[in-house]
Amino acid sequence: MPNYHPPFEPGYFYHVFNQGNNRENIFLEPKNYGFFLRKWNKYMGGYVNVWSYCLMPNHFHFLIRVIEQNKLDKPKEGNNRSLTELISNQFRSLFISYTKSFNKVYDHTGNLLRRRFKRKKVDSKNYLIGLIHYIHHNPIHHHFTNEYTTWEHSSYKAIIGTGPTKVKRNKVLKLFNGRNHFIKFHQEMKEYKQINHLIIE
Q1: In a domain, 3, yes or no
Q2: Are 156 and 149 in contact (CB under 8 A)?
Q3: How many domains does one find in the chain?
């Protein structure tokens, strides 16, 4: 059985995935996506850096890197917790907060997101690069669009753009040896067999 809940370790990359309970939609309107990202920044910004992401109507993918332990935001009551427990609790708080707001606005009841989100530890540079491509192309894979460059709810435009962003744009572009190589790499069709162990749906 794949291990979808490895411990969080400082400085390591993880592919994080979650979806709507019973596969129901978690984003109903365009404004929901921005609202979720603001919630993400509030709850996760002091614990992980985002290298890429994609939000889709019923699920999302994030590629994150855990912040070095001496730089983590640690609540007073969390000082003695393990890093895994600390970050998992932040994810839980994020999901609960978003669900409460969603339920209030849309007269929804119960859990919106699956309580136990999945994650995979990224184990090499090549897989890291392939995973970024996979995440940005995910809306095509799930038939939400035919063109990844026009999908409004991923990090692709933020990475090739110049505006303010929380995504680690400069580090991502350095990983791809610059903006032009990043764009060219995304234009190519990829075979994901090499990163099957990192792909979660």
Answers
A1: no
A2: yes
A3: 1
Sign for the CA dihedral angle at 130, 141, 160, 35 comes to negative
Nearest CA to 87 out of 171, 2, 36, 14 is that of 14
Quick: pLDDT tens for 122-179.
Answer: 988 988 999 999 999 999 989 999 999 999 999 999 999 999 999 999 999 999 999 9
Domain that holds residue 28: 13-198
Spatial CB neighbours of 57, under 8 Å, sequence gap ≥ 6: 25, 26, 27, 28, 144
* Beta-sheet pairing, 48-56 with 13-19: unpaired
* pTM, to two decimals: 0.90
Which residues face 65 on adjacent strands? 13, 49
pLDDT bin (cut points 50, 70, 90) of residue 200 is low
- Tell me the CATH number at 174: 3.30.70.1290
Tell me, yes or no, whether 5 lies in a domain: no
